[in-house]
Design a protein that fits this description.
Elements: H1 9-15, H2 19-35, H3 39-46, H4 51-67, H5 69-77, H6 82-101, H7 107-135, H8 138-166, H9 171-194, H10 201-208, H11 218-227, H12 229-245, H13 250-275, H14 280-301, H15 305-338, H16 344-370, H17 374-394, H18 402-406, H19 409-412
Helix pairs in contact: 2-8, 2-9, 3-4, 4-7, 4-16, 5-7, 5-16, 6-7, 6-9, 7-16, 8-13, 8-15, 11-16, 11-17, 12-13, 12-15, 12-16, 13-15, 14-15, 14-17, 16-17
Length: 418
């Protein structure tokens, strides 16, 4: 079994699409961090809409974004790569423009703005993964995907911090943040488009004998809906439990969120590279076990009360973040390994549908379970995640990419990572 190779920053940047594309990712993430956490606040304070109306408009944007994914998958399968990434950014420019143009009380323009922002946010992950899969291969691709996630989380975190510091300026500050976000999206789109990456799936299939069927991935997609709940644990589940059930200071929730972001930024690539010595499917199943164990840890920590409960929850949250990092480093990589090149876009689109659906329903599920007590919340999440991990581990790979997904680095690509 091969050992993990060194991480070389220059090689990682090249495997991720090159320096210009890395800058595009950073600028796009910074702009998203400036606005996305405060979009609800913008609708309520600047446009003076009610919170329920604002929330419904934002939900419509997410749903429409998901509905667009099959068409995006077909577009990617025709070979488009950097064009789709740039389009996902440009459509958000239109969303920001509508946001700035909307007068107070105008719910239709806000809904249209949320719709275009939602489309861009849903299209980007699949388009980005397809681009990276085109310019890199094997385990180098896995590291490049992990590097992109780390860079994006860093940009989101910096953007959110800058926006938080500007909120004291009131509605005018929110409007300025929206304008800066639009400029950032426009600049990122220009940079991404300039990379000019285009795939030739038919030629690749002919060269590799890659004429297999589209991967079904039924168990993987169903399990992914449950796995992605971990992404909302630091933002929704833990603040809900800490503040309403444990009556702890909101500072604990903020500290856990910041720690989660820092750990993802610093550990996503090293952990992904470390796990590259094992089959991707095994690593994804392991992520489910780690997440389930962390949920049981939260269940055990909560009864400790005010004195030790909050610090214990914070400590367990580190384990949860490690599970999230392992999941994020293996899930998309497994999909790209399983899918034939000519059907990569549709496979990634289906995966994004499962991810988007999980993210959309998880707040409602988490709050509903929490209303029935800690055992229902954490016990239910743990049982569902363990069941999902079992489904992932036992699903049979019948597609062309199964051997690649199950192989070690010596078969799947043991390159040095950047």
């Amino acid at each position: 079994m091969a050992t993990t190779t060194k991480i070389r920053p220059g090689a990682l940047v090249r495997a991720s699409g090159g320096p210009r594309y890395a800058v595009a990712l950073a600028v796009d993430a910074l702009g998203t961090g400036l606005l996305r956490p405060f979009l609800l606040l913008y609708g309520v304070t600047v446009l003076r809409l009610s919170a329920p109306v604002t929330g419904i408009a934002m939900t419509v944007g997410v749903v429409v974004g998901l509905v667009c994914m099959p068409a995006v998958g077909r577009w990617l399968d025709r070979g488009a790569r950097s064009t789709v990434v740039a389009a996902s950014m440009l459509v958000r420019v239109l969303g920001v423009a509508l946001l700035l143009a909307a007068p107070a009380g105008h719910v239709r323009l806000f809904t249209a703005a949320a719709l275009f922002l939602g489309i861009g946010n849903q299209v980007w992950p699949a388009a980005h993964a397809a681009l990276v899969a085109t310019v890199s291969h094997g385990r180098e691709r896995d590291a490049a995907l992990a590097g992109g996630r780390a860079l994006r989380n860093a940009g989101l975190g910096v953007g959110a911090l800058l926006a938080t510091a500007c909120l004291a300026g009131g509605t005018s500050a929110l409007q300025a943040l929206a304008a800066v976000t639009g400029v950032a999206y426009l600049a990122a789109a220009a940079l991404a488009w300039s990379v000019q990456v285009h795939a030739h799936p038919a030629a690749a299939a002919a060269n590799d004998g890659d004429d297999g069927p589209a991967p079904r991935m039924r168990a993987l997609l169903a399990a992914n809906v449950i796995y992605v709940f971990c992404l909302n644990v630091p933002e929704i589940a833990l603040p809900l439990v800490l503040v309403t059930q444990m009556h702890a200071s909101p500072v604990w929730s903020a500290a856990i969120f910041v720690a989660n972001t820092v750990l993802v930024v610093t550990l996503q690539v090293p952990v992904t590279v470390l796990m590259s010595r094992f089959p991707r499917r095994t690593v994804l199943a392991l992520a489910g076990v780690v997440l389930a164990a962390s949920y049981l840890g939260f269940l055990a920590a909560i009864p400790l009360g005010d004195g030790w409960g909050a610090p214990a929850v914070a400590a367990v949250s580190v384990v949860c973040t490690i599970g999230e990092i392992i999941y994020a480093g293996s899930a998309t990589a497994l999909v790209t390994a399983l899918a034939p090149a000519r059907l990569l876009g549709r496979a990634l689109a289906r995966f994004q549908l499962s991810t988007g659906f999980g993210l959309a329903v998880s707040p409602a599920v988490i709050t509903a379970l929490a209303s029935h007590g800690s055992a229902a919340l954490w016990g239910g999440l743990s049982a569902a995640t363990l069941l999902s991990a079992t489904a992932v581990a036992t699903e049979k790979d019948q597609e062309r990419g199964s051997a690649l997904a199950a192989a070690g680095p010596e078969q799947a690509g043991g390159e040095s990572y950047g």
